């Protein structure tokens, strides 16, 4: 188990740096030219050349740091749990997000599962034939590759907090990624313990499938992270719920759940449990903290004084979402033709029917082109040619001659559309900010 502190090690991949939380880091007060500053020290090494922005910057909180490496700025958490997102521009570099650029979300220290020979997944509860499975046992089942977008429910939380303060990790627009997950279907695994496909309940009264992690969390009094989905969801092969051991064709790495994790396509990332330890068939929803006292959508008038967690169901599908990734929140550009790129996605397997972009703050709109795989036209409800659980990337060009606001909004195949303003969906935990995405443009005078 990884301990507390700041950073453990550097892991350099393809010219970029990820920082992992662990022991040994501290802040050093440094005086230069009469100015006091703070530098990060890890194992005696001063990392001053990698610090892109002071810890005291208004852009970040005291629990976060922006680290610059090879001209790329990354946002990292300073203490457990370790959370990080890549620059937004990296998300549009490819349809399948490279592992290096996939966001990292944790609720406790990143666990180490290194004795793979003794690793066992236990399946029990209200089942006919409880059992334990090794990773080798699971790999003997038919393997499926599912392209699915994972999105933290708190994606775009920072923008929501500008309306009114919220609690949670201050994500920009990059707590999201699209990967090819490889593994066994959960429906096939559950058949091994006597649960048939499309079962709503077991003969012993089981109605939900609970996933329990090796990961330990302070919110659950030091107990394991856990979540659940309905049994009918788990036993439906068409739902493509996986016990995944691969990501983008390679074994999962430690940050993304090695040796085994759950992937629940079309559902908020909090239900895709990493570092899977056990599966329990239970009569009701999981009663863990992150199912019952977090990741629920409340109306704007609910605050921390009057909240009643029991009045809302745990959030599952995520709503239709889009974000501009080729531009930052505030940009300075030359007048002329400007190309706008980004991503759009919807939960529950709903495709993206349209992405609208405005170059004048929402007064007029143009439709952007949408695409997934190169050379294959995207059709929102064509499961044969399109990946129904995955995002689409979009692109559109327009002329800009004066300062303006560029806006993007998406419509999914069920005609759901993003809300215009964040105020109407504000909630105290800052989840599901799916309001129109807006960026500001300052055009240089000719």
Which stretches are poorly predicted, pLDDT < 50 over at least 5 residues? Answer: 1-79
Order of strands across the widest beta sheet? 10-9-18-13-14
User: Which structural class should the secondary elements be placed in?
Assistant: mainly beta
Distance between the termini: 58 Å
Radius of gyration: 22 Å
Mean pLDDT: 86
Largest sheet: 5 strands, mixed
Beta fraction of the residues?
25-35%
Helix amount, in percent?
under 10%
The gross shape turns out to be globular
Number of helices: 6
Number of strands: 27
Task: Produce the secondary structure layout.
Blueprint: E1 10-13, E2 16-19, E3 25-32, E4 35-42, E5 45-46, E6 64-69, E7 72-77, E8 84-85, H1 88-91, E9 121-125, E10 131-133, H2 135-139, E11 143-151, H3 157-161, E12 176-185, H4 186-191, E13 208-216, E14 224-230, H5 231-234, E15 242-247, E16 250-251, E17 261-263, E18 276-282, H6 289-292, E19 321-324, E20 330-333, E21 336-345, E22 352-358, E23 366-367, E24 369-371, E25 392-400, E26 404-412, E27 437-443
